[in-house]
């Protein structure tokens, strides 16, 4: 079948499977008994079915059963043995149609193929990215394609600094991705930065209740945000397209895989900002890279190159910037074809025993940071940045 975009859709009934299922329906042979009022529709459905995208075994069995019923009538062949799994499944499907009249079976076959064709038409077209973009996000571009949900931070002019709105939108996007039919989820950044971390202007928006209330709501937001990463059920991959700062670095310890461009750097300047570690990094970083290397990053704000971050286990693999996107997305597309349930379960087995501990650490880090935000050290550092006296 040619899709409405004029693109030929791959055949879903491979020869091997067709042989093993012995589905004569797909040989474009129509028996005389089926040649009645809806013969033309039936023939056209038989042609169409060969060009559909793979509708899955359940539907293929339905099609098989309806074809047999339409052309041969009720099933009266001997039931295959229990170990002849494929033929038994086919026999069961046909037998389940009981005494359904041939004409009704033929009509049902035509209706089923017609339904499959229209859904295949709409899903087989290559849509431009603007069309695939999920609506409702202002600070992100969220797309789902090839079983991959991609969450892209989209404030390139501000180096993808994370505003309160961006934290909330990332939480929403993760919650949606955890329930959609994608196999893996990716977080990445648009432009030259992955992310410059917390948007320091978040500190300027003080509510009438005062600065304490601001720190309190910031700590709740931080805790909720990090909890979403701790609990995310599917493989989560960071595609670090450029420099990463602050919270965009610390949460990497909660990802399953981190791919980085060789242009990326990893920097957590908490002491410079009068702040303290978050994103569970006080636990994950010493575990990943050892306490001495973790202290250099988290206490002294040492900036790591991508190669250093990889050597210390924070990054899975580094790619040359010139081929970064191509190589990483080729790899991810291949991974996304692996059985999704197996991947989820493997992630659970790897991560679940740490979950409770991570939630407790997140709560504690958020509580400490809430106090830090009220300190003179933090206020001065933020003021310095916002009045352009200091750049990290
Ligand atoms: C509620 C949860 C709280 C969780 C807490 C998390 C802690 C952290 O994440 S700590 C890390 C905070 N981040 C920083 O301190 C980075 C600050 N930014 C910089 O030092 C520099 O901007 C840069 C090194 C990232 C980039 O420098 P560069 O010279 O290349 O570009 P700029 O001209 O400085 O930036 C362009 C544009 O973007 C604005 N911007 C960049 N980062 C931030 C940021 N983190 N917060 C607010 N705004 C940021 C920058 O001001 C420029 O804006 P204008 O063009 O309007 O001047």
TrEMBL record:
Signal peptide: none annotated. It catalyses: a (3Z)-enoyl-CoA = a 4-saturated (2E)-enoyl-CoA; (3Z)-octenoyl-CoA = (2E)-octenoyl-CoA; (3E)-tetradecenoyl-CoA = (2E)-tetradecenoyl-CoA; (3E)-nonenoyl-CoA = (2E)-nonenoyl-CoA. One of its GO terms (cellular component) is peroxisomal matrix. SUPFAM superfamilies: Acyl-CoA binding protein (SSF47027), ClpP/crotonase (SSF52096). Its EC number is 5.3.3.8. It is found in: Mitochondrion; Peroxisome matrix. This is Enoyl-CoA delta isomerase 2. Keywords: Acetylation, Isomerase, Mitochondrion, Peroxisome, Phosphoprotein, Transit peptide. Residues 116-135 are annotated as: Disordered. The gene is ECI2. Able to isomerize both 3-cis and 3-trans double bonds into the 2-trans form in a range of enoyl-CoA species. Has a preference for 3-trans substrates. Residues 38-122 form the ACB domain. Its main location: mitochondrion. In the C-terminal section; belongs to the enoyl-CoA hydratase/isomerase family. Pathway: Lipid metabolism; fatty acid beta-oxidation. Pfam families: ACBP (PF00887), ECH_1 (PF00378). One of its GO terms (molecular function) is delta(3)-delta(2)-enoyl-CoA isomerase activity.
